[in-house]
Amino acid sequence: NADRPFLLFFSLAHIHTPLFTTPAFAGKSRHGRYGDNLEEVDWIIGKITETVDLLGLANNTLMHFTSDHGGHLEDADSLIGQKGGWNSIYKGGKAMGGWEGGIRVPGIFRWPGRLAAGRVVDEPTSLMDIYPTLKYLAKDTQPDRHLDGYNLMPLLEGKTARSEHEFMFHYCGAYLNAVRWHPSDSDSIFKVHFFTPNFFPPGAGGCYDTKVCLCHGQHVTHHNPPLLYDLFHDPSESRQLTPETESRYAEILEQTARAVERHKSTFPGKEDSDDICAQSNSVQNQMSWEKILWRPWLQPCCGTFPFCGCKEDKKPS
Fold this sequence. Notes:
Blueprint lengths: L31 H23 L8 E4 L9 E2 L3 E2 L17 H4 L3 E4 L19 H8 L15 H4 L10 E6 L2 E7 L8 E8 L22 E11 L18 H16 L24 H4 L10 E2 L2 E2 L9
Antiparallel strand pairs: 1-4, 2-3, 5-6, 6-7, 7-8, 9-10
Family: Belongs to the sulfatase family.
Cofactor: Ca(2+)
Pfam family, one: Sulfatase
C-alpha cells in the first residue's frame, strides 16, 4: 500500500501474560522474561519505523504507539516473580477502574513531516481521541453519533496548549467509578473516586486473592463523599483532599456531579438500547452478554473446526 492511503492496526501479544520469549531475545534483558519481551517490542517497532522510512513515507505517515491498560500487578509467582509489569509511582493497575496505574499508558506519536520531534504534551487525553483524530485527518466531514473523544491534532501540533477534555469519565467494567476535572482556570487535575476495589491482603496494592480486581458487590467499597485527589500535585494519589486542605472542595464535587448527569444524559434510553436502528447519537450496550460472549467459530483455525491446530506442516525445501 505504499502508493495509496492505508491504515495498519498492529496489536502485539508481547508483554501481556503469559509471556513467551523468542529465542533471539531470550536473556537479552536484565529484567527477566518481561524485559526480554520489551526488548522484542522495541525491535519490532524499530523494523516498522525503518520500513516506513525506507519507503519514503515518513513525512506523510502518522505512527501511534500505546497500550490498552497499565501493568497487571497480581500476575506474579515465586519462580519468575513479577510477570505483569510495573506502574512506577502510580497506584493500582490493570482492571482497577479509576486508579492511575490502570489508566496511564504510553502515548507516543511520530510524524516527521508534521509533528515536532521531542515535544512533550502533559494534558489529559484518551484512546477515544484516536478515532476523531483519524476522522479529521481523512477529511471525513460526515456527521457522526455523539463521541467521547476529540481531535488531537491541534494539541499535537502545538496550536493549542490545553486538552478539550475538561471532564473525563473512568469505568470499571460497566460501572462509572471515577471522574477527573481539568478546570480551565487552573493547572490542577482533580479526580474523584465513587468506589474503589478492595485490595487484599490488607495493606497490599492489588487484589491478590482474586488475581484481578472486580467491579461490584463485596469486591468494592463505595465512598460518600467520594475520594478526591489533585493529580497535578499528587499523581500517585496518596494525599486525599478534604474541605480543610482544598478550598475548592465543595465546588469540585458539585461540578463533577453536574458533569456526570450531562454524561448520563447522552446514554440511550432503555426503550432503544437494543434497537439496531436507534438514534444516531446512541449506541448499543457493548458490555451485554451478546457482545462479550466468546465465539470460537470466529477464532483462527488451522484444520477442521473444532479440531484446530496451528502448527505448520514441515515440508522439505
